[in-house]
Design brief:
Number of domains: 1
Distance between the termini: 32 Å
Order of helices and strands: EHEHEHEHEHEHHEH
Strand content: 15-25%
Mean pLDDT: 86
Radius of gyration: 16 Å
Oligomer: single chain
Strand order of the largest sheet: 3-2-1-4-6-5-7
Largest sheet: 7 strands, mixed
CATH superfamily: Spore Coat Polysaccharide Biosynthesis Protein SpsA, Chain A
CATH topology: Spore Coat Polysaccharide Biosynthesis Protein SpsA, Chain A
Low-confidence stretches: none
Shape: globular
Number of helices: 8
Length: about 220
């Protein structure tokens, strides 16, 4: 099952090469790297690996980068994966296999392993979105997920930064789309991490969505 694998990247020159090579081993996919205004050699590494590359002149945010990559994707099946090496690209086939029977396949991390500064935003987001979905969701903020291109753009996502993942799930639930979860492994301690300020923004977004009745 072919797909366009989209890697949003910001100052990941040290890690993105190994991520790209792991993605290549996962299948014959189109690989799109969106350099989100990096100040290092991220773009050079991606180009050397033969990826489709897009360079943003300034840092626009993860969500913006993901949507930019999705716009130029040539496959209807899309997979988003971070460029910092924390996620295991070997699990891309599992996400795509799951996507055959649902609208969105979402990676689920072991919540016990998530860094302390992100635990609250994850727990809060899970509780709110799970209540709206009418079923318990294990992880609504994991950036490792698969969706069809037409479904992604039908959601009309507006958020440009880390709220992107939560917004996708929230709007998918609102539209009655089916969501299935796939356990994924994560290696923390390498690559980049979500700043505390961004984690707070995610929490604020989910709270605002609930209060405004978006769910």
């Amino acid at each position: 099952m072919k797909a366009s694998i989209i890697l949003p990247a910001y100052n990941e020159g040290k890690n993105i090469g190994s991520v790209i090579r792991a993605v290549k081993k996962s299948g014959d996919h189109e690989i799109i790297v969106v350099d989100d205004g990096s100040r290092d050699n991220t773009l050079d590494v991606a180009r050397a690996e033969g990826c489709v590359c897009v360079r943003l002149n300034k840092n626009m945010g993860k969500g913006y980068a993901c949507k930019t990559g999705a716009k130029i994707a040539t496959n209807n099946n899309l997979v988003f994966i971070d460029s910092d090496g924390q996620l295991d690209a070997k699990q891309i086939p599992s996400l795509l296999a799951t996507l055959k029977s649902c609208d969105i396949a979402v990676g689920v991390r072991n919540m016990d392993d998530i860094p302390i500064q992100r635990k609250f935003s994850n727990k809060f987001a899970r509780s709110i979105v799970s209540a709206a979905a009418g079923k318990k969701l294990g992880d609504v903020l994991c950036g490792f997920r698969a969706i069809r291109k037409k479904d992604l753009f039908n959601l009309q996502l507006k958020k440009g930064r880390y709220e992107f993942e939560a917004e996708m799930i929230i709007k998918a639930v609102r539209k009655g789309m089916t969501i299935k979860e796939v356990p994924v492994s994560v290696r923390y301690g390498i690559g980049s991490s979500m700043p505390i300020t961004e984690s707070a923004k995610v929490t604020s977004y989910v709270m605002g969505a609930a209060l405004q009745g978006v769910l």
